[in-house]
Specification:
This protein is an alpha+beta fold. About 30% of the residues lie in helices and about 35% in strands. The chain is built from three helices and nine strands, in the order ααβββββββββα. The strands form two sheets. The protein has a five-stranded mixed sheet. It is extended. About 5% of the residues have low confidence.
Length: about 180
């Protein structure tokens, strides 16, 4: 009987450890959002309000007119046939420090109302820290009605501190239909 009692004690101890682990994981998940906000406030990364202020603050000579960087725009879909998604222009010549606007066009071909989310990527990776979006359709999910076509704006600037060896930057978006994930919640 002592062997069975020992086994039961070990099982209870393991159960308590697992419960503490689950509770800690759950609490950590809730703590991530405020921790991210604090990190954004401390570092300034991801704070859209600060980026808009920095981009719109009138500063004489803030753009580097002597330098031109080519920004390419790419649109991709993880599946074929459900969406039409494309940039309104393929490239744009920009001066670091100056605010620019472009757009992408998306059309819902799923045959029903849905929600989509764009995930951005910037290449080369070393340029990502100096590419700042002040307005972007990627900041939140986009609801679309059946067959709706919409122009999705992007406002951005390249920081003047962009390394001199970077003369071409690619901003690409992958457009995901997230209605299945939204419905599952």
């Amino acid at each position: 009987m002592s062997g069975k009692g020992q086994q039961q004690r070990e099982n209870r101890r393991l159960t308590w450890k697992l419960l503490v682990f689950v509770a800690g994981s759950f609490a950590f998940g809730f703590a991530l959002v405020p921790l991210y906000r604090v990190l954004c406030q401390v570092t300034g990364f991801g704070d859209q309000k600060l980026l808009v202020e920095a981009a719109s603050a009138p500063q004489a000579g803030s753009a580097d007119a002597s330098r031109t960087v080519t920004v390419e725009f790419v649109a991709t879909l993880p599946t074929v046939g459900n969406w039409e998604f494309r940039p309104s222009q393929g490239t744009l010549l920009v001066h670091p420090g100056e605010l620019y606007a472009t757009s992408f066009v998306a059309r819902n071909l799923t045959g029903h109302d849905t929600v989509a989310q764009a995930v951005p990527n910037i290449a080369p990776g070393e340029a990502a820290a100096w590419f700042h979006k002040t307005e972007c359709f990627c900041f939140r999910p986009q609801p679309f009605r059946r067959d709706e076509e919409r122009v999705l704006p992007v406002r951005f600037f390249l920081d003047r501190a962009l390394p001199m060896n970077v003369d071409r930057v690619t901003l690409s978006y992958t457009f995901y239909d997230t209605s299945n994930r939204v419905a599952a919640r």
